[in-house]
Every structure is written in structure tokens, then in C-alpha cells.
């Protein structure tokens, strides 16, 4: 993998872990990574926690000077106002979050989020110094029809509409085929590379080779420590967005340690 992109392993806890459980999970993860002598300059590690956990996670990370980062799972496209139940990017920024997932397929499916909203949320995050992890990917029927690339690229186009090259270079794009999420059915490395490579080529078309080179493209969908090393061998896969396996500190630490697994 001859590029300058630092791999990112992101754990999306989804609606799991109250704030006390969150503290324990982050502590266990930090210990496991310390035991493994994890080098954060080689592989970045982040956890996307429920909103109610973020203050506790921030306090722990600051107090113990942990090198792992944290993020949220959603953000409002608005800064403030009469939007009951929404969370402003300003609030997240004050809590020191580095990342926010935007347009996860569960938000698209259960909350009818469309590309325009994903675009607005991505811009709101970037405007407040938070990196959006923009989630894209096709459902099973689209994959069966062989239209996974065009479907996913249309989501990428929609998410990036109107973003400057400077902002586009900062985003993370997570390719998550919906049929692989929480099903135990991980995409093959070749499946992941096909779409990740197409996403990078689209970034070059929309912006420039430099932007395409800068953006990290993650794969998500049933990633485990047994599958990560092969996925990471693909030239356009720069990390993983991990759901279920991120709730197990030892297993998630092993995923972050994919280089050690590949070397042994
Ligand atoms: O955000 C994470 C993805 O939805 C993957 O979830 P999973 O690893 O449980 O399949």
C-alpha cells in the first residue's frame, strides 16, 4: 500500500453501551491496545459512541491521555434552534469529537435520510472542525442486479455536492454494502476493492488526483479480526467501520492490530 493515508479503524457502537458501560469499554480497549503496543501513528483508532456517552468518554480520554479518538453517530445539519431532539455540531465540537458518522444505512433506512440531508450534515460537521465519515453502499437487490458501483457513486456525488476541494480532502468515506451489515456475511476483499477503487476514481474526476489520494475509504460490514488483514491488502481500502465487533474490546483491538496479524 504505497500511499500516505493513515489507516483508520472506527468502531460504531450503534445504540449500545450506556455511559458507564462506555467508560469500561474504552478502558478495556485502551488496555488491550497498550498491551499490544499499538502505534497510533500507524493506525488510527476511533469509537463512535451514543451522544449520552460522549462527555464520559471525553473525560476518560483527557484524564488518561489516551491516543484513541472518539466521535458521534449522527449530527444535525442545523447549528441551533427549534429542532427538538437534534444535536448541534457545535455541541459535538465542544465535547472534542473528531468524527461523526453521516448517512449510515440505518439512518437512511429508519429515518429516511437522503443524499441531500447527508450532504447538509457533512457540511455542518466540516464547518465545525469535525470529520464526517460518510456512509454509502448498496442494498442486496442492487448488488444482485450488478449495479453496486453506480448506486454507490450516486450517493458519493450527492454527499459531496458543493463541497470545496479543501473540505472534500478531509472526509472519510465508508463503503458499507447493506447486505453485509450485521449479517456475518463480509464482502470479499475484491468486492470491497471494486467499489472503494471506483469511489477514489470518482473523487479524482470530481476534484483532483490529490484529493482522491488524501481521502480515506473504509470498508464496513461484518468485519472481524479474521477478515481485516485480507481487506487491508486492497490498495483502496484504508480501514474499517466496525459495528458488532467493536463492542468486544479485545476483538476490536485485534482488528486495529491488523498489521501484526498480517505479519505473523
Ligand atoms: O457501522 C458499522 C456497520 O454498520 C457494520 O456493522 P457490523 O460490523 O455489525 O456488520
From TrEMBL:
Top-level EC class as recorded in UniProt: isomerase
CDD domains named among the record's database cross-references: TIM
Gene Ontology annotations for the cellular component aspect, listed alphabetically: cytosol
Active site: 104, 176
Keywords attached to this entry: Cytoplasm, Gluconeogenesis, Glycolysis, Isomerase
Compartments in which it is found: Cytoplasm
Family named by the database record: Belongs to the triosephosphate isomerase family.
Record-given protein name: Triosephosphate isomerase
Species this protein is from: Sanguibacter inulinus
Source species taxonomy: Bacteria, Bacillati, Actinomycetota, Actinomycetes, Micrococcales
Amino acid at each position: 500500500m504505497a500511499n500516505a493515508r493513515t489507516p483508520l479503524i472506527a468502531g460504531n457502537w450503534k445504540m449500545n453501551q450506556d455511559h458507564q458501560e462506555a467508560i469500561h469499554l474504552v478502558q478495556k480497549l485502551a488496555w488491550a491496545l497498550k498491551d499490544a503496543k499499538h502505534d497510533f501513528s500507524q493506525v488510527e483508532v476511533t469509537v463512535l459512541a451514543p451522544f449520552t456517552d460522549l462527555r464520559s468518554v471525553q473525560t476518560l480520554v483527557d484524564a488518561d491521555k489516551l491516543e484513541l479518538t472518539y466521535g458521534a453517530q449522527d449530527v444535525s445539519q442545523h447549528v441551533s434552534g427549534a429542532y427538538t431532539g437534534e444535536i448541534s455540531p457545535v455541541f459535538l465540537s465542544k465535547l472534542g469529537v473528531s468524527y461523526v458518522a453521516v448517512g449510515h444505512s440505518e439512518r437512511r433506512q429508519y429515518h429516511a435520510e437522503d443524499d441531500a440531508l447527508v450532504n447538509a450534515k457533512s457540511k455542518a460537521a466540516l464547518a465545525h472542525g469535525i470529520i464526517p465519515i460518510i456512509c454509502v453502499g448498496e442494498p442486496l437487490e442492487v448488488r444482485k442486479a450488478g449495479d453496486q458501483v453506480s448506486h454507490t457513486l450516486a450517493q458519493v456525488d450527492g454527499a459531496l455536492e458543493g463541497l470545496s476541494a479543501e473540505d472534500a480532502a478531509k472526509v472519510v468515506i465508508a463503503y458499507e454494502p447493506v447486505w453485509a451489515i450485521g449479517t456475518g456475511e463480509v464482502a470479499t476483499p475484491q468486492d470491497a476493492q471494486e467499489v472503494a477503487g471506483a469511489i477514489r476514481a470518482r473523487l479524482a474526476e470530481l476534484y483532483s488526483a490529490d484529493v482522491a489520494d488524501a481521502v480515506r475509504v473504509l470498508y464496513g460490514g461484518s468485519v472481524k479480526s479474521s477478515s481485516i488483514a485480507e481487506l487491508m491488502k486492497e490498495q483502496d481500502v484504508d480501514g474499517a467501520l466496525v459495528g458488532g465487533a467493536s463492542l468486544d474490546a479485545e476483538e476490536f483491538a485485534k482488528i486495529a492490530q491488523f498489521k501484526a496479524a498480517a505479519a505473523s
